[in-house]
Write a structure and sequence with these properties.
Elements (H helix, E strand, L loop, with lengths): L2 H19 L9 E2 L6 E2 L2 H4 L3 E6 L7 E7 H25 L7 E7 L2 E10 L2 E5 L9 H7 L7 E5 L4 H20 L1 H4 L5 H8 L10 E3 L9 E8 L5 E6 L2 E5 L7 H8 L9 E6 L15
Antiparallel strand pairs: 1-2, 3-4, 5-6, 5-8, 6-7, 9-12, 10-11, 10-13, 11-12
Helix pairs in contact: 3-5, 5-7
Bound molecules: zinc ion.
The site of zinc ion has 8 residues, from strand 4 and helix 3.
């Protein structure tokens, strides 16, 4: 299937799914962006107002999963995804498993330089490549006395909230690809969409938890939480990140998460594996009664 055909196919599926949930609203086939909820007719595929979105973001190994509008895909998305990517790089570096040298700033005896942190078998080495630094840096370093020289390493900065909202967004979109407009139109998801769109301010105390085990990022699962009762809902797993999303109509979900805490060392959660959407179905293949 060509890129154009694939986009058209996803448009048609989404339009069909929307018209099943909300019949008779639009005369022409219409795809409603799952985040902004703006309606688009098919011309939006050609002029770029609708485009394919990666879930999770491409920079952390995601794949194209559904269509979102330009507004949602380009602006906030890009900033959030950069935070998610940097956080992941730092996490890998700190667990000794970066997939490539990790860029850091090092301050050695008062001289700040650009360095690369290499991890192998749990031990680290630091290199200070000439091409990342201004001329004369290595001479300056050589003049430093060895004894008593301090070394401070600083990772690239990122927004922790931004990184977490990026995972929230990916988890929400994975659910939409699987379950369609029942998710998009669910009032319990309003707070999720607001958090994704207005990402400077935290709306919920907790929505992405860290897994107890150090799962590789390639593990992606949609799970139903069965127990404990206050946690009932969806968990979308991206490796070590567990994105918590409410069941339909559950308006107190995030309040309960905040009240009960999500300390993984004391809580035991029972999950049911639901699947993973490799292509969008928007709930069309499911029994309409569910
Ligand atoms: Zn949008």
């Amino acid at each position: 299937m060509s890129v154009q055909e694939k986009k058209r196919d996803w448009f048609d599926l989404g339009a069909k799914a929307y018209s099943q949930v909300c019949p008779g609203i639009y005369a022409a086939p219409t795809y409603v962006c799952p985040i902004w909820r703006m309606p688009f007719t098919v011309e939006a595929l050609d002029d770029g107002r609708l485009s394919k979105e990666h879930v999770p973001p491409k920079s952390v190994g995601g794949h194209e999963l559904l269509l979102t509008c330009k507004e949602c895909n380009n602006t906030a998305g890009t900033m959030l995804d950069a935070d998610a990517k940097t956080k992941e790089d730092v996490r890998l570096a700190m667990t000794g498993r970066p997939d490539r040298p990790h860029r850091i700033k090092a301050t050695i005896g008062g001289i700040t330089v650009n360095g690369q942190l290499h991890a192998k078998d749990g031990s680290y080495s630091l290199t200070i490549p000439k091409h990342l630094n201004r001329p004369g840096t290595s001479e300056e370093l050589q003049r430093l006395g060895r004894a008593g020289t301090s070394l401070t390493v600083e990772h690239e900065r990122y927004s922790e909230l931004g990184a977490r909202i990026s995972w929230l967004r990916a988890g929400y979109l994975a659910l939409v690809a699987m379950d369609g407009y029942k998710i998009v139109l669910d009032p319990a998801m309003d707070i999720v969409r607001t958090q994704i769109r207005e990402c400077d301010e935290r709306r919920m105390l907790t929505f992405v938890a860290d897994a107890q085990e150090d799962f590789p990022l390639t593990i992606r699962r949609v799970l139903r939480v069965l127990e404990p009762a206050w946690h009932l809902g969806w968990t979308v797993q991206f490796g070590p990140y567990l994105v918590n999303l409410p069941s339909r109509g559950d308006m107190t979900f995030y309040e309960r998460l905040a009240n009960n805490g999500l300390s993984p060392t004391v809580q035991h959660t029972t999950y049911e594996y639901v699947g993973w959407p490799t292509t969008p179905t928007f709930g069309l293949l499911q029994n309409e009664a569910t």
